[in-house]
Amino acid sequence: MTDSHVRHVLAAAKKGSGVVQPVCWIAPDVSQDVAREYLEKYRIRVISYDNRDGTHRNLVKLVETLSDFAPTATYSSI
Question: Which of 74, 71, 77 is nearest to 21 (CA)?
Answer without folding.
Answer: 71
